[in-house]
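Data deposition worksheet. Section B asks for the primary sequence of the deposited chain exactly as it was used as input, without tags or linkers unless they were present during the calculation. Section C holds the resulting structure in C-alpha cell form. Section D is free text for depositor observations; keep each observation to a single sentence. Incomplete worksheets are returned to the depositor.
Section A, Depositor: J.P.
Section B:
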Amino acid sequence: MKTNLIIYLTLAAAMAASAFRPANAAGVHATALRIVESNLGIRSQEAALEADLLDRKADNTLPPLEVEYSPFFRSGATGLASSELVVSQGFDFPTRYAMQSDVTNKMRDRSAASMASLRRDLYVEASQLGITLVYGRRKMEVLQRRLSDADSVVALTRRLIDHKAATALDLNRAILARGDAERELIEAGLEYSDAESSLRRLACGADLDLDNLEYDSEVDDIALPASGGEFAAESPAVATAQREVEVAAAERRVAASSWLPSFSIGYRRNTELQESADGFLVGISLPLYSIGKKGKGARAREAAASLAADDARLQKEFEAEGALRNLATLRRAMAACDVATAEESIRLCAEALRLGSITLTEYFSQTESLYSRLLDRLRLEHDYRRLAASISEYNFTIDSP
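Section C:
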C-alpha cells in the first residue's frame, strides 16, 4: 500500500509539472553539464591524477645530500682517537633531468585527455538518463489519457446497462481494460522514478530541476558527426590513447639514455688526535648491465601503446558508423508513425462509441492499437535521442590541469 502511494505521488508530480511547465524549462544538455560539474567521482579522479603528477615531479630532483660521520676509539687513548666526516651529493647526467621532465609533461597531457574522456562519458550517461526521464514523463501523459478514456468508458457502460443497452460482460471488459491501463501507468511511474534516482545519484546532491526537464531541440536539429572518422578524430578517448603513445615515446628516450653515467661529488675530512686532513670526493656510476633490457622493455611498451591507439580509433569509427546507420533506420521508422492521424482516430472512436456506431469490443480493439502507435512513436524517438547522444559532437576541451 505504501509503495502504491509513493508511485501515485510520483505520477501526480510528473503530471502536474507537465501541465504547468515554464517557458524556461531545463534542457537535457544543461542538466548533464551540471551533473558533470558536481560529480564527486570526477573531482576525486582529477585530484588523484594531479597528486600523481606532483609526486613524479618531486622525484625528478637531486637525491638527498648524504652526510656520514664515523668516530673511532683506540685502546689506551683518552676520548676520541680519530674521526671521519664525509659529505656527498649524487646526481644524474644533466640531460636526463630534462628528459624526465618531458615525460612528466606528456603524462600531464595524458591526464588532461583522460579527464576529458571521463567527463564525456559521464555527460553521455547523464544525457541518456535525462532523455529517458523526458520520455518517461511523456509516456505517462499518454497512459494517463488512456486511463481517463477507460474511466469514461466504464462510466458509459454502467449507464448503458441501466438502459439495457449493454451487458455485465461488457462492463467486465471495460473494468479489465481500465485495470490494464492503470497497471501500465504504474509501471511507467516506476521507470520514471528509477531514472530520476539515477540522475540525482550522478549529481551527488546537486540541486536539479528534473520536473521541468525537456529535450533541447527537435529531432531534425540534432547535430551528428558526418562520419565515423570525424567522430573518432574528436573523441577524447582516442586522444587519451594517442597521449599514451607520446608518454611511451618519451619513456623510451629516457631508457635509451640510461647508458649515461651518474656522478657524485663530496667533501671528506679525517682527524686523528691533533692532526686533520681534508679532501674532495669525485665518483661515477656506470650502468653496464641493465642498458639493453631497459631499452627493449621501453620499445615494447611504445609499440603496445601505438597498437592500442590504432585500436581505439578504429573502435570509435566502427561505433559511430554503426550508430549512424541505426539512426537512419530509426528516422525512417519515426516517419512511418502518423501521430496526428492516431490522435484523431482515438477521438473519433470515443465519439462513435458514445453514439453507438461501434461496439465496446470494436472500441477497445481500435483504441489499444492506436495508443500502442503513440507509445511506439515515443519509444522510437527515445531510442533515437539516446543513440544520438552517444555520438554527439559535444566534447570537453582537453586542457592541461
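Section D:
Residues 349 and 366 are 7 Å apart (CA to CA).
The longest strand covers residues 262-272.
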